[in-house]
Sequence to fold (311 residues):
Amino acid sequence: MGCVMVSLGVAITAATVAILVAEFLRNRKGPLPVHGWLGLLALVCAEWLMFRGVEPVATFFTPIAWTAYILVADAAVLAVQGESRLRNAPREFARTALLSVPLWLVFEAYNLRLENWTYDGLPMNWLASGFGYAWSYATITPAIFVTADLIQSYGGFARPARPWKISAAVERWTMALGAVLLAVPLLVPRHAAAYLFTPVWLGFIFLLDPINRRLGLPSLLADLERGERGRINSLLLSGWVCGWLWEFWNYWASAKWHYIFPLFQQWKIFEMPAPGYLGFPPFALECFVMYVFAARLLGWLKKPQLGIRGL
Fold:
């Protein structure tokens, strides 16, 4: 069963990447920039060294792979539309990476109670281990954003949709729902909390996005109200793409995570139980909402910006 599930995971990951590459080749306006080729070279070399157990690449493979991927994806965006985060807004991109660390630590704090995953194979030296954690966490939000940029650059989500009417009452109930979803896993007994990470994957969306909308910041609700679906769809698909790549690269790394929540452990694809892949698309929405809220608190986001690339 294990070999079959791994083969299935490899096939789905390969198909997902193949679609991204095919769309890139169909939509590109110019050649892949130099930093994209450097990212591809770094990724290939890292894979080769990792499978041979060469240190420190084998241990730090996950952040190396994701750093290389971000370079490739950003270069692809630049080749398609003539602008990208690293090319046009490097300072904002660095801020995204920096803020990605504490934002992921919010989920690590929840995991202290829920105990849904654990880490294995980390360096014994606390400084090296901490460096690896920070580097890995710093790639999460940038990876989601640049993948969403790439998907949105293909132009498949530009058509307007029917606007939603969103009242102040809807906002209030949405925020209340988010608060409940985030509170319940902390209030129930520990043995029950292990089953409740889904509310955490959704709670910040419902709690924070209405606040972002009220502040005039980029917001999923505001997009729905205007009849715009491009950002939401590209983020959802970005979560799907990144989710498979996260699990694919994690599976063979020397330092890796294991999912230990008490559901579907016999149906693992790589290290993730199969239904868990459904959590990655909403997780991408949550990363966006949390980043917008936190960036506004820090004074990094001071006016409405309508596109993924504006963040």
Q: What stands out?
A: The chain is about 70% helix and 5% strand.
